[in-house]
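User: ok so my PI wants both of these folded by tonight, can you help

Assistant: No problem, let's get them done. Here's the first:
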Amino acid sequence: MILSVDSIAESETTVADEHFCTCTDLECPLNPNTPGCRHRTCDRCIRKCLKAGEIPSCFFKDIHADTSGNSDYTYRGFADYLNKHRGPARGA
């Protein structure tokens, strides 16, 4: 299903002041959901991941909730993780 920009904007207005973050790693100091974290955005996490050539763990958890066996959060690691849990893309 492809969402239009208008439908995304409409859904975002219903949670106007809420921060959207799916990260469950409450040990991570970059997680805005960590108790005591004064930053209410994912900006620091995304900045760190971009600098390291990685993808945030929340993307991995969206594919499969149990990431305990994963240690490669690079772009290649994400592609491998996706193939492992969803199968290779068609035409690949």
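One down. Here's the second:
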Amino acid sequence: MLSQRRFLIIIVAKFLLKIDDALDLFAEHAVGGIIGLLFNGLFASRTIIALDGVNTSINGGWVDHNWKQLYIQFAYVCATCAYTFAVTAIIAKAVDLIPGLHLKTTPEGESLGLDEVEVSRLTIL
């Protein structure tokens, strides 16, 4: 239920902010990863972590009164988002500088459809 609500909220936000994310990659992977990392800081339990017999000295999260784990997880989220943004911006700029390649089609191409513009044919549904 939480997953469906998260997805709906992100879809509405994407529409209101006019973000062009055709495959909903941000909604699925980024937001899902952020929520997952933060929930690890909240709900991690040392008894579950120690079931593998290897990681027996990990303190767990808020469930085990390890209050600082949530702050560590938040720092991981911030570092990962910053790294991902920087590397993606560099790759996108590099692709945009290559002659003949562009990150986005023209407004005319969007209205006609990419099959008509790029492949010169209409697809049959």
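The longest helix spans residues 68-97. The chain has one domain: 2-119. Good luck tonight!
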